[in-house]
Write a structure and sequence with these properties.
This protein has helices at residues 18-25, 35-43, 89-103, 118-126, and strands at residues 8-12, 47-54, 57-65, 72-80, 108-114, 130-135, 145-151. It is of the alpha+beta class. The structure holds coenzyme A.
Amino acid sequence: MAPEKPGVALRDARSCDLERLLALEAMFPGDRLSARQFRRHLSSPTARLRVAEFDGALAGYALLFVRRGSAVARLYSIAVDPAQRGAGLGALLLADVEQLARNAGRGILRLEVRADNVAAIALYRRAGYREQGRIPGYYEDGCDALRFDKALDESRP
Ligand SMILES: CC(C)(COP(=O)(O)OP(=O)(O)OC[C@H]1O[C@@H](n2cnc3c(N)ncnc32)[C@H](O)[C@@H]1OP(=O)(O)O)[C@@H](O)C(=O)NCCC(=O)NCCS
């Protein structure tokens, strides 16, 4: 089970969350998910779009891909409303998608992160992710990506 925090609820995203998810995306610079992408992921059997509500308001989301025939699940995106940062929501969303990946029988969770994203890198390292390499020029603006992964079996409580 993912850890709990008072006032926080984690659940699958619904179509009615779309406006709020887009508003959240608009708060961050760079590669954003579009309405079309969110809609596609909402109905995709190989994607799990999870949201964190804090006191009833949508405060963050995480998007997990669980492709058929692969032992590796992928965290495609995770974001928390700037007004709610530092309160543990990112860590809760991460633990939640790890549990979903485990439940789906995946042994590894993999992700890419901008090499200059100090907060996200700290979040992943703290959660036990190990850096596996650098992908030069991965992002639209030419920024490198760092690839991290975590063996989910090892972290089974
Ligand atoms: C990365 C992000 C999701 C973290 O969410 P958050 O809710 O603020 O994170 P948490 O409060 O759960 O923090 C968990 C840990 O992450 C690390 N961390 C989070 N924000 C940090 C910061 N600004 N600086 C350094 N470490 C940070 C800390 O280790 C923290 O644990 P601690 O508070 O016990 O020290 C959030 O900053 C965000 O939405 N950023 C913009 C979107 C983004 O960059 N997503 C990642 C794309 S790969």
